[in-house]
Amino acid sequence: MQSVLYAPGLALPLLGVLFVSGVFHEFGHAAALRYGGGRARGMGFGLYLVYPALYTDTTDNYRLGRWARVRTDLGGFYFHLIFALGLVALYVLTGSEFLLVAVLLINLDIVYQCLPFVRFDGYWALADVTGIPDFFSQMGAFLRSMSSVSRWKRDNHLPDLKPWVRTVFAAYVMVTVPVLSLLLFVLITRLPGIATAAWDSLLGQAAVFSRALDDGYLVGMALSTAQMLILGLQMLGITYLLYSLGRRLVGALWNRIGASRRAEGA
Q1: What pTM did the predictor assign?
Q2: SS in 3 state form for the chain?
Q3: pLDDT tens by residue, 249-264
Q4: For 169-219, what is each residue's pLDDT tens digit?
């Protein structure tokens, strides 16, 4: 860790190693899908929530059996661990400590990806284990099925669930809804401070880039450019996230108002 902190030039190789490990992670999903008899339709790069992310189109996974789908969900973790073992072996040969920092960050990313609160790998693995196609899309139907009204009328949008699956779903709702609500509340309340800090950081990185340009320091120019790009993508992601949530909320309220008016007119 000290080798990275005291040698900023190592940050670029570290980012490069992490990017390659992310690509290798996606090959793990594709390989597991291919092993089960499916085929990945594509790989790419985009924004998920507020962060840039790599992805693999595993739509073909839905025609496989349950445990084949779970294997596809977890295939990225297998390849990530293989990549980390390769870095450890390379560290033994070279003694480059920044490789151990990369291993630590890869392991933390695996833990992060296991969180089932949003559509990461752990979310899809839990969905495939329980047999629920998508927790978020089925959450409304599940809550209606738990109400007294739906006890007298079957909800056609909710698949048949075994008792243990209903228990898991109920626990998931009770944990996930408060967690996501709290995170959204924190994001909204701290948004002005986040935007101010991001703007100050962008100005600071622009000054660093200008000094590096005057000195002909290519590594410093590359690092400041990467930092500005990451900050810009995060702010773009936050803006799009709030826009999407606001649009859905306004749409839901509009539909509710329209339903109430039609009921009154009837």
Answers
A1: 0.73
A2: CHHHHCCHHHHHHHHHHHHHHHHHHHHHHHHHHHHCCCCCCEEEEEEECCEEEEEEECHHHHHCCHHHHHHHHHHHHHHHHHHHHHHHHHHHHHCCCHHHHHHHHHHHHHHHHHCCCCCCHHHHHHHHHHCCCCHHHHHHHHHHHHCCCCCCCCCCCCCCCCHHHHHHHHHHHHHHHHHHHHHHHHHHHCHHHHHHHHHHHHHHHHHHHHHHHHHCCHHHHHHHHHHHHHHHHHHHHHHHHHHHHHHHHHHHHHHHHHHHHHHHHC
A3: 777 677 666 666 666 6
A4: 999 999 998 988 888 888 888 888 888 888 888 888 888 888 888 888 887
Residue boundaries of the structural domains of the chain: 1-131, 132-175, 190-266
